[in-house]
Amino acid sequence: MTTSDFNAILPLIVLAGWASLMLLVDLWIPKTRKDITAALALLGLAVTLAVLLVIAATGPTPIVAFGGMIVLDGFTVFLNVLVLGTGGLAVLLALNYLKRVNIERGEFYTLLLFSIAGMMMMASAGDLIVVFLALETLSIPLYILSGFARPRLDSEESALKYFLLGAFASGFLVYGIALTYGATATTSLSQIAAAVAANGALAADPLLLAGAALILVGLGFKVAAVPFHMWAPDVYEGAPTIVTAFMSVGAKIGGFAALVRVFFIAFPALAAHWTPVVAAISALTMILGNVAAIAQSSIKRMLAYSSIAHAGYVLMAVVAGGAGTMAGFAASSAVFYLLGYAVMNLGAWAVVMAVEKDGAAAKVDDFAGLGATRIGMALAMTVFMLSLTGLPPTIGFIGKFYVFRAAIDSGYMWLAVVGVITSLISAFYYLRVVMVMWMQSGQGEAVTPLGLSTVVTLSALATFILGIVPGPLMAAAERALLALLAKA
Amino acid sequence: MVPTSYYIILSVVLFTIGVAGVLVRRNAIIIFMSVELMLNSANLAFVAFARSFQPASGAINSAAMAGQTFVFFVMAVAAAEVAVGLALIVAIFRTKHSIDVDEVHQLKG
Question: Which residues pair with A295 in a beta bridge?
Fold first, then answer.
């Protein structure tokens, strides 16, 4: 192991080591003072972020470590910062929420940190072994977290469903990797591409195509793309809301990091085969996610279907990348969309947590009258809902704009049209929440401790400001992706 | 020497049995066993392919090594999944006194 190998995984070592230590230290923290554990978790995330930024700023990038297993490039750094930020906001939200619903246990923060470590590993995967390992490292803590409110039956049920379907998906992923390995004699992403480039016949090899298809199924489950989405509404509804907020963002970032890495770096030569399939999945995901969301009265289920729909929009960018000439722009629009989604979605979930009455699932009707009683919360929720719909001037609009442009420029006009139509459909259920808040009278009440209001304020400001000046951020995303694709 | 394709056919059969098991069976433990079967069918494919990539001298090369290493990772991860999965199943059994997934339907899809 050389110094540069060590540098490439140092942020991961710091975070995983910190989480392990926290598991130990937590034993001596009294039950009533678990906010100390939360503070430690925040500190751990901050230290990891600092280490990551120092390495990215000082060292030569990209670092290719451990014989190509781990890659630390702009893409890694960008997504790692995003994941660490998401984790930080989740800790802030958890602080008071866990106490309120009576599930304040120190392990929560440790599991959260382990899951974040898995997501970070995913963003730096250069080999299918690491993709698999990272996927499990991020998923297994999430299975436990979904069941964290035990013995509440809906939480346990959500954990069991998530676990069984997650393990099922892993089976597909591993088998896909096995077939890919059988066809190309390697598991390294860049060497798979090299093997296909060296032997053109491989691009039509049924073994390799089956492998790529099974990997797509496995990752499709993780990002909840139709037709592999059926677990998402149940799991999102049953899991404690703080866990749902975190996994609807974090697991999606992890899954898409893997999709971009695997399909853009290892399988660009097969693009003619997988692009139409991903396009169909993307269209189905957008249509089904948005249409099913209309019928929901529970806000958690509604946001679950909405998160399925948003996976469809990100997939649109993946399609654009496969269709060719502008993989760079497509991938950066995907990353930008993920960032926007993280910000607006975390904010929306934070408001749901504020409105939720001690563990009982919130209905859309619970928001009635919020505009009169809690004007700040109602304003923030309005911003998030407008942004999720994709109306200007919010980050959701800019994200959709880039994704649609990527699809149109790569010749997938029909997909962009589906995207626009489904966005219009989505306005129906997102704006219903806004309408209920401002127009209906009711006893809308919200619990707003400091951590939660901080998150809501930050996300609302970010949704708004990044919607007006997205330029620098998009430039950063493009820089991040340049390194990724230059190497491929 | 048994041709590689025989192993791969067996592995496909095992994988299919695993998938069918997950879809058809209703007992959480048996679904879980079927998932393990899927993972292990992949392991079989890995070692079979790894053997076919080995040079005739029997020396190990990096292509063969990759597949054999992967098997260890899959086994380790599967063990971690078993620990969490069985814990979840025990937890739900304590609450519901049943692990039939059809009876676990408080959340409507």
Answer: none
